[in-house]
Enoyl-[acyl-carrier-protein] reductase [NADH] (Aliidiomarina minuta), 396 residues
Amino acid sequence: MVIKPKIRGFICTNSHPVGCAENVKQQIQYVKAQPELKQGPKRVLVIGCSTGYGLATRIVSAFGNKADTLGVCFEKEPTEKRTGTAGWYNTAAFHDQAHAAGLYAESINGDAFSDEIKEQTIAAIKANMGQVDLVVYSLASPKRKDPESGEVFSSTLKPVGQAYTTKTYDTDKDKVHEITLEPATEKEIADTVKVMGGEDWERWIKFLHEAGVLADGCKTTAYTYIGKQLTWPIYGHATIGLAKEDLDRAANDLRQSYQEINLEAYVSGLKALVTQASSAIPVMPLYISLMYGVMKKDGTHEGCIEQAYRLFVEGLYSSQPNLDEARRLRVDGKETNDETQGKIETLWHQVTQDNFHQLADYKGYHQDFLNLFGFGFEGVDYDADVDPQVSWGKNK
Ligand code: NAD
């Protein structure tokens, strides 16, 4: 099959296996070109391992520190007629490269919020790793089925308290326009916390601990975006921000509850980037396009892999980690410092439909968006007939 991108709104409904493998290969090459990690985990569980920040963290663990990795993700397998999701192909490519490097790599495809997948994960750890010394929680999901009540909760991306009118960029129509986002109801807020807050992270740690598969001194981290004034009304101080605040509560509770195994629990603040999750958030494509322009000009731009590598070196495995007042690890400073934010804000006030492509790096945004699905890579022949049915390699 010849595979060309099918873009519908803020998603691409297909993906390219060869391009996804190229994406994984480039991230591995980046990590291999960095100084080897002096300290780091050897047995890693990544929940949300197949795309974005979770995939990058898995790559840093495996290729920066020769770690065995077990991943959990929720991806669609390809059929003869339909491509798999990008996360499916990324995982296949990761397995191939990790196995070729002599590393254990296995992934479990299913709903991480369910107890069944937690049990399957525990069985795989017991059989192949014994215990884990790092648990990364990198899920981004619009809904969660509560494993106890069976009720399905949906998250909402809305402001809290009052309506918010702002600029946005519609990637589909190539249009900068104003939008008004109505405030969330109490139920929408509570439901978003239920999906993206700390409850499931805590449940994972409880299950893993009760099964005896967390090593003494194990670390765990969940990812957050904190941002600044420009994004606070729709992110930091909005429904998703409140869910993320619940991660801070959970990290504290985890630190208190698992002292007997010296568990270190952190929320890690990462920068805004184009991922499947962030492209669905109103305002973010405009903010990220402007931010990319500023940070590339200043030479401070980073992608998921650079962020994940720095998180290990300067945060999780540093003797002097950069912790903020809420004890979060922070590697988002190159984006959130006042000077960079000031430059983005100036552009934000100036940007209109007419000057958008001059002021913003939409080209860079779109390139990253295509890359997420394995498209737009130089050296990949997108006219070639490729077999979409790629399977995940097994450990030897
Ligand atoms: P992403 O969409 O690229 O990745 C989400 C991952 O979760 C995928 O591996 C997917 O398969 C998995 N997943 C989703 N639902 C699942 C389910 N029910 N069961 C099992 N796996 C499931 O997202 P991302 O942007 O990398 O986000 C990961 C984390 O990083 C989130 O917590 C997000 O808030 C945070 N973060 C993102 C940004 C950003 O700009 N993208 C910035 C800072 C922090």
Summary: Residues 239-257 form the longest helix (19 residues).
